[in-house]
Design goal:
It is a single chain. This protein is α/β, with parallel strands linked by helices and 174 residues long. Strands 1-6 form a two-stranded parallel sheet. It has a two-stranded parallel ribbon with strand order 2-5. The protein is elongated and about 55 Å long.
Length: 174
Amino acid sequence: MAHAYAHLYRIPMTGLRFFTVYGPWGRPDMAPMKFARAISRGAPIDIYNDGRMRRDFTYIDDIVEGVLRVLDLVPAPSRDAGAADDPALSPIAPWRVYNIGNGRPVDLMHFIAVLETALGREATRNMLPMQPGDVAATWADTADLEADTGWRPATGIEDGVKRFVAWYREYYGV
């Protein structure tokens, strides 16, 4: 729909794809917040696909920085030879899509281990099969973001989880 409006009405459109965002004020239905809450309370955590999952966890500060970096980049129709075959570009419309993610998928079990260390408490694991409709791995190709802004997300999982847990403890008083 955005591409159609960009094409028909020459309205520049930039789409942003965020990858597994975590950090302060995170969504309560996402794994980082659910896991932190359960581990803090001594409740079990549900781990799907028997833990064989990989996610491109991206700390919220990197998401915000990425948004700020592309804010003033007004897209134009792309003159790149491959634009017609690239879903992030358009040869006929002022349209652009950027992935904002860490670009380095993390094993879910490693994420849980880092979270346990930061919380100072071991999780009780409830290992489950893969959920219908889920994917085993996510990964953000941030090459276009880096090419156009000279920047890429850089917060590592250990640092990001440590900051998230510090906020979580202060906010929830645990």
